[in-house]
Amino acid sequence: MLPEIHSQAALKAVWQSAIVVGCVSFMLALLCGGLVYAIHMKKLCERRFTLFGGDLAALLSLAAPIALLLTFSGAEPANASVNILLTLILSIVLLTFIGWLIVLIPKRMHKVAVLLRLIAVATCATLLALSGISFDVVKIPLTTKFVGLGFFAIPFSVAWMALLTITFQMTARVPCLSLGIGAISSLTLSFAAAALPQRMTPLAMLLSGITFGACMGLLPWAMMLGQAMTTFATASSIGILLSAISVSGALKNTALLIVIVPVLALGIPFIEVTCALCDALISKSGVKRMSLFELLISEGLVGRRLWVVLVLTNAYLCIIAMALVALVRIHFALKLLVLLSLGFFAVALIYALSKLLSQRQPSRSTIELLGIPISTLGWEQTLERIMQFISEGTPHMIVTADTSAIVRAQEDEEFKRILRGADLVTPDGIGVVMAARLLGEVLTQRISGVDLMNRLCALAAEKGYRVFFLGAKNGVAELAAKRLSQMHPGLQVVGTHHGYFSDDEERDIVRIIKESKPHILFVAMGIPKQEKWIAKHMSEIGVPVSIGVGGSFDVYAGLVKRAPKWVQYICMEWLYRALREPYRFKRLIAIPKLLLQVAKAIVRRL
After folding, report:
1. Where are the alpha helices (DSSP H) in 488-572?
2. Residue among 597, 155, 538, 162 at smallest CA distance from 408
């Protein structure tokens, strides 16, 4: 076994060496991966080379730094350090070639491929254990007693490393997942190794640096290719290194963390293996159970979105593992409590991410969100629906519902009845879209009031529709109408009026609108006042389309500046406006209120 660390100077030297070999591994991966990417983009060879080329890049970036350590270690040929490093290089090369061989085996010979994989992994794990990477003693939980494993040290170590390697091989089923989880898991295991340096060997830190560097160097090229750049071979090589790190790390003496930390660090692969085992057991009875990956794909997660969900969830599990390592000296019961409580949030995290990032397409035009019918129509379909309303000539009401509107509807029965009776309710705000997705509904686009108003004015200019502006402060409606007329030549504005009128003036305003005979009435009085006003008078004024647009008049009048396009793109316009207009921060309380309502709805479904 590599010598243990007994001083701060020795620990610092190990950190420096780990950083150096990690940088070497990163640069090799970056250069080799870039070469594979360039060859692929130039179409100098077929797709199969891209896969094998990526695996070859991984082989070089993992094995070459280990060979570098072997060259500059200065150890004698019979030294345990030399044996371990040579065995690691041999294992990486062997698993890479076996991985290539398995890819070439026909699908009808699946059992042969599985047997070959098990034999290769078991062989490498045995060689590593015999070379010196093995457990020696463990600490019994709830006691301070250490027990030597004796004869069982080798078989236990072999079984554990084989299990971790086979588990990590499951990441090969999702492009780039081996690289993402490999980088995160290697950092986590290195943190565990550094937690108790007095029990640590340099091997754990050095291998962590190499694994992290190789994964991070290859990852950008693999992501840019948008397809599998590495195969089962790379997953096997990274897996055997992670298993070696877990055994040679600092916490090998603690019976609880010897299992918990690596399982959490490889949380997603372990969940996938568990699903596969359950599937194998249940399939005999004719019942088919999908794996975690297949389940997420069926939820509409594909490509990079699937990768993001799996990597972020695994990163959270790694955070739990590091928390347990940091609390290694506290009582067993407290560690178990931390594990269970944080584990619950891991389930919630993967559920939330899978729903929020889903790319499923809506199967119906309307969904129910906390009792409110929300349109799932895109921009083109929404405009077509509005044109249909206008052609019918009868009064219709459109509501652009943001987060505050949905929350207000849960507290105001009259407002809720108005929303339920509206002809079209569009999702105005990312909060509404997220809430719907968390509840399992498909909502792909937000149709905001300010954008809808602009598009309706463009449509009105094109089709010859007449429009009326009602709301905002004195003079704002006129200015907004003027600027929109300049933006859309031909726009027929048949009237404007501010929204600060008395009850006595209301009858005159209703009469003016009725006599103007607009096709579209924009009302900017704020939620829920504008919707209640429209619901009260829509039958009398007879306007084909009446729509509440909130503070849109202020935007088009130039009194309020909209967020830059990139802020709108990342759906953070609500925060931008709150920062520019601090009085809006009190409205943001609607966000946690909506999330609470959504959480209650999810619990009721369970």
Report:
1. 503-516, 529-541, 552-556, 565-569
2. 597
Distance CA 110, CA 128 (A): 27
Q: What is the structure's pLDDT at 281?
A: 64
Per-residue confidence band for 520, with pLDDT thresholds at 50, 70 and 90: very high
Centre a 10 Å sphere on the Cβ of residue 175 and count the other Cβ atoms it contains.
Answer: 21
Phi/psi class of residue 490: alpha, beta or left (left: φ > 0; alpha: ψ in -120 to 50)? left
User: Tell me: the pLDDT tens digits for 452-471?
Assistant: 999 999 999 999 999 999 98
Closest CA to 215 of 183, 169, 238: 183
Q: Is the N-terminal amide bond of 528 cis, ω within 30° of 0? A: yes
Asked if 470 and 521 count as a contact pair (C-beta separation under 8 A), the reply is yes
Report the C-alpha gap between 20 and 42 in whole angstroms: 33
Tokens read off for 172 = 């090969």
pLDDT tens profile 215-259: 999 999 988 886 667 788 899 999 999 999 888 865 555 555 677
pTM: 0.73
Tokens for 517, please give them. Answer: 């005979």
Give the DSSP H/E element, type plus range, for residue 111: helix 110-131
